[in-house]
Amino acid sequence: MAKTRAASTSRFARLRRIRARLSTRDQPFDGWLLFAALALVLTGWVMVTSASTEVAASLTGNPWYFSQRHALFVVMALVAAVAALRTPLAWWRANGPLLLLVSIVLLLLVLLIGREVNGSRRWLSIPLLPFNLQISEMAKLCLIVYLAGYLERFLPEVRRRWGAFLRPLMVMGVVAVLLIFEPDYGAVVVMTSCVMGMLLMAGAPWGRFVFILIAVGLLGFYVAISEPYRLARLTSFSDPWADQFASGYQLTQALIAFGRGHWLGMGLGNSVQKLFYLPEAHTDFVFAVLAEELGLFGAIGVVGLFALLIWRALAVGRRAELAGMAFAAYASYGIAMVIGAQAFINIAVSTGMLPTKGLTLPLLSYGGSSLLVSSAMVGLLLRVDIDTRRALRRASPTAPRETAGRREPRTTGQGVMK
C-alpha cells in the first residue's frame, strides 16, 4: 500500500514538473500562442506551394508564381502582426467606432466599384497593394474591436436590458445586409457567430439567445434557399455523389483526396487531386490537399494547432477579464471565435460536414487579405497578453523584479514572499 502511494505521488510530482516546464506564467508573453500561429503560417506556405505548382504553371508559366506571392503575403502579414502588437490597446479602444464606420463605408464602396470574381463582388483594388483587398476580412476585425469597446462601456445594461443587448445585433444586421448583397454568406455566418459568442461571454441571459437563434436560423434558411446556387449546394451536400460532375463536384473531389491520404499520406508534393481535379486547391480546399499528402496524422496535427491557438486566445481573454481589463478580454474572445468559427467551417466543408462555402482557412490558405487580417488579430492577442501580464505583475506584491539582467523575488520585512 505504501509503495502504491509512493508511486502515485511520484507520478503526480513528475506531471507537476512537466506542467511547470511547459507553463508560460513567468514569461513576458504566451509562447504557445505564438508557436501555434507561426506553425500554421509556415505550414500554409508549404501547402500552398505544393497545391499550386501545376495550376500556376498552367496559368502563368511559372510553377512558383503562387508560392512567391504567398511568401510576399507572409512577409506583409508579419509586418501587420508587429504593427498590431506595437499599437496600444487604448488606441484600439478609442477608435473602435471609427473603424466600424470605415468598414461599413468600404462595404458600400465595394458594391459600387468592387472587382467581381465568380459572380461575387467582394474585392477592392488598392493602389500599391499587391493584391485585391477583401473588405469582409477587414470588417471582422473592425467589428470585434467595436463590440469589445461597446461591451466595456455598457456591460451592466447588456446583462439587464433588451435594448442594450440588441444594439450590437442591429449593427451586425447592417453589416450582414451589405455582405449578402456582395454576396458573402460565409462571412455573415462567421461574424454573426462572433457577435453572439461575445454577447454570451459578456454574461447576457441565456433566454435571449433562444429567441435570437430561432430568428437568425429562419433568416439564414431563407437566405440559403433564396438563390439557386445556394440551394444547389445544400442539395449536393446531402448526396454529392448523385451529381458528382456538377453541383457535387468540389465535395466529391475533396472526399477522394481524404480517401487517398489514408494514415500517413501520399507524401509532400504527391497529391493527385491538385492536378486540376480539385478546384481552388490552394485556397478554399487546401486542407483536403494537406490530408492527401500528409494523411490523417498531418490533418490532425493542423486541427491540433488551431485548437491550441484558440485555447490560448481564450486563456488570454480570461486572464485579462480577471485583471479587470474588459476591452482586452472581449477583444480576445472575439478573435478566438472568429478564427475558430472560420477554421471549423472550412474544415467541415472540406470533409463534407457542411455545405460547400467559399471560406479560407485562417493563417493557412492562399490569400493576402485573410492572412493579413488573421496575423493582425494574432498581434492584437499578443498585445493583450503582454499588457495583462504587466498589469498583473504590478498588482502583485510578490511580482518578480529584474536586477542586473536576472529576476529576483521581492522581499518584505518578513523575508522572501513565495
Short description:
The chain is mainly alpha-helical and 418 residues long.
Write structural notes for this entry.
Pathway: Cell wall biogenesis; peptidoglycan biosynthesis. It is globular, with a radius of gyration of 23 Å. A three-stranded antiparallel sheet has the order 1-2-3. A two-stranded antiparallel sheet has the order 4-5. Helix 2 packs antiparallel against helix 11, helix 4 packs parallel to helix 6 and helix 7 runs antiparallel to helix 8. With 418 residues, the chain is mostly helical. The C terminus is likely disordered. 71% of the residues lie in helices and 5% in strands.
What are its keywords?
single chain; 418 residues; mainly alpha; 3-stranded antiparallel sheet; two-stranded antiparallel ribbon; 13 helices; 7 strands; globular; disordered C terminus; FtsW; peptidoglycan synthesis; Probable peptidoglycan glycosyltransferase FtsW; cell inner membrane
For the biggest sheet, the summary is:
3 strands, antiparallel
State the oligomer: single chain
What's the order of the H and E elements?
HHHHEEEHHHHHHHHHEEEE
Going across the biggest sheet, name each strand in turn.
1-2-3
| Proportion in helices | over 70%
Rg, rounded, reads 23 Å
Task: Give the arrangement of secondary structure elements.
Blueprint: H1 2-22, H2 31-60, H3 65-86, H4 89-113, E1 115-117, E2 120-125, E3 132-134, H5 135-160, H6 162-181, H7 185-201, H8 206-226, H9 228-238, H10 249-261, H11 286-322, H12 326-350, H13 368-395, E4 401-403, E5 406-408, E6 411-412, E7 415-416
Antiparallel strand pairs: 1-2, 2-3, 4-5, 6-7
Helix pairs in contact: 2-3, 2-11, 2-13, 3-13, 4-5, 4-6, 5-6, 5-7, 5-12, 5-13, 6-7, 7-8, 7-12, 8-9, 10-11, 11-12, 11-13, 12-13
Keywords: Cell cycle, Cell division, Cell inner membrane, Cell membrane, Cell shape, Cell wall biogenesis/degradation, Glycosyltransferase, Membrane, Peptidoglycan synthesis, Transferase, Transmembrane, Transmembrane helix
Protein name: Probable peptidoglycan glycosyltransferase FtsW
Subcellular location: Cell inner membrane; Cell membrane
